[in-house]
Amino acid sequence: MDTILVVNAGSSSVKFQIFSVEGEGKLRRLIKGQMDGIGSRPRLRASGADNDALADRVYPIEAVPDLPAAMGIAGGWLRDELRISPVAVGHRVVHGGPDFDRPVLIDHGVVARLERFVALAPLHQPHNLAPIRSLLANFPALPQVACFDTAFHRTHDAVADYYAIPHQLHAEGVRRYGFHGLSYEYVAKTLPQVAPEIAKGRVIVAHLGSGASMCALKGGRSTESTMGFTALDGLPMGTRPGQIDPGVVLYLISEKGMSASKAQNFLYRDCGLKGLSGISNDMRELETSEDPKAKLAVEYFVYRIGLNAGMLAAALQGLDAFVFTAGIGENSVRIRARIAEQLRWLGVTLDEAENSRHARLISRSDSRIPVYVIPTDEELMIAQHTLSLLVNRPSSNVRHVRVS
Ligand code: ADP
Question: What's this model's pTM, rounded to 2 decimal places?
């Protein structure tokens, strides 16, 4: 059985999934797992296709000091105990910089180019690259593919790609990239099966998870995003502020004496729903809290989504549908209802019953703008890209699958 390993590495955890390659290029998810607590309380957990537990193990801190060690243990477990040796590995890489507008087969040259983008995503890119480097060193013949969060947005026109700053900075890479691209790509690929006519039109997709952004799709292509140079911009998130006057950052530095790295930590970890509520970054907790600060945080989240939807509708010059996805978008009946209220002026009327039962179409039949919930699947997207690049390699030995 041919299998593909999908890796999503962060600062203290590595998430992985195994897909089997079936006939006609179809993929079936076999295993989901993660090693978290790297460098603190390492723990390997994994479950099978039916959510059945396959592993739950803790390790001494010295055994898993860093990401390559975590990959080594997870890989060893897959290989030695489950007898799984993947034919290829697909990695989520946050930044593809200005050049990569699609996934790419990894070699040493690609790694060197991706290292140049560490400065553009210092909290994510080094962690994404660490397992790539260690697999390249230990299994040089194993094909690896990098799939970027930025690539799907490289279709933006110049007006959506530039900041109003001197050109030299744009040439250096200071651009409005946009992120969550693998999620938007998955939604854009799924939409034609859900609503074929609408998929050809103007759609706003709201990816509302612990990171949150929105994307304007025209005919399935990204034309605008609420995120920009980094994943800090746009909507308020669990711990990031979203759009903020750069003057606030200057104030933090000049008046509060923050160093650049302190300000960075503050903006990535202490703001957003967590900072505003002073309680939690988890929407579930805020939704049930009676604390006025929690209520304000939720109200701010909903309000900013409404404002940004107006902006994206202007970018699209109209709107044919609105789509919710990711943790909050897929699961919170109340937040979806409140956002729909904000979008009423655009022609949105929610069907309460359909919203409550998490239907795929949650707007009323007389709503001018249909509203959908499409659960995202970034890992499947990565596995599909990996398989596609693997099959199309000149030296491919995966011959019995065809991927369109
Ligand atoms: P990530 O960006 O980490 O992949 P997810 O898309 O998994 O995030 O979303 C995680 C977030 O979704 C959680 O922080 C939580 O706030 C939110 N969430 C999950 N389930 C619910 C729910 N039933 N109601 C409200 N919020 C939820």
Answer: 0.94
